[in-house]
Amino acid sequence: MNRRIFSHVLGACLAGVLLVAGPAAGAADEAPDALIKRTSTEVLDVIKADKAIQSGDTGKVIALVDGKVMPHVNFTRMTAATVGRNWRQATPEQQKRLQEEFKILLVRTYSGALAQVKDQTISVKPLRAAPTDNEVIVRTEVLGRSEPIQLDYRMEKTPTGWKIYDLNVLGIWMVETYRTQFAQEISTKGVDGLIAALSQRNKSNAGEKTNAGEKKS
């Protein structure tokens, strides 16, 4: 899978996260597959109706992520799993910076892929889990004009409802993919080196976005 296709795949992954909207009454007791099924159509409609999101407006995407995604994501666990064993050696300030830069990386890298959301719908597969399970995988497919896209969620049960902590698109788990990249950076430059690399990459992505906007104008 080449870099461009992979970016669109993970972009679909981020779009998939956006299908989990803000909490509703009784959401803490709602089954994980029911949560995703209930909200998918509503949030897809938001994306389809918002021209700014479709054009990759980073500010709009960040606002959408903060307002509707983060309440249903254990981002600390997601970042910790991505950083791997080095997370425990990181200071609280380093952990905070890692989460901030990782979130910006995900949003900036894949915000453009949200423009690919057109007439897609989500099909949620039957949940294979026992009522007592505290961790499950919710398996779905993104249906559209092209071939169905596998989109799975690793979720955990918490006192405030089910939370996402990893995503799988077409057999590629996001945490595992970034863990390999982050481990290489940490092995040569340490945790501070990873933070600096993420910060620089985010600045470069922001610059590319600005330049692209100037060329269009």
Number of helices: 7
Instruction: Let me know the average pLDDT.
Output: 79
- Helix fraction bin: 55-70%
Strand line-up of the largest beta sheet = 1-2-3-4-5
Q: Tell me about the largest β-sheet.
A: 5 strands, antiparallel
Count of beta strands: 5
What can you tell me about this protein's structure?
- A 5-stranded antiparallel beta sheet has the order 1-2-3-4-5.
- The chain has one domain: Roll (Nuclear Transport Factor 2, Chain: A).
- With 217 residues, it is α+β, with helices and mostly antiparallel strands.
- The chain is built from 7 helices and 5 strands; from the N terminus they run ααααααβββββα.
Helices and strands, with pairings:
Layout: H1 3-17, H2 32-49, H3 51-54, H4 58-69, H5 75-83, H6 92-110, E1 121-124, E2 135-143, E3 149-158, E4 161-169, E5 172-173, H7 174-216
Protein traits:
217 residues; alpha+beta; Nuclear Transport Factor 2, Chain: A; five-stranded antiparallel beta sheet; 7 helices; 55% helix; 16% strand; disordered N terminus
Brief digest:
With 217 residues, the protein is of the alpha+beta class. 55% of the residues lie in helices and 16% in strands. The chain contains seven helices and five strands.
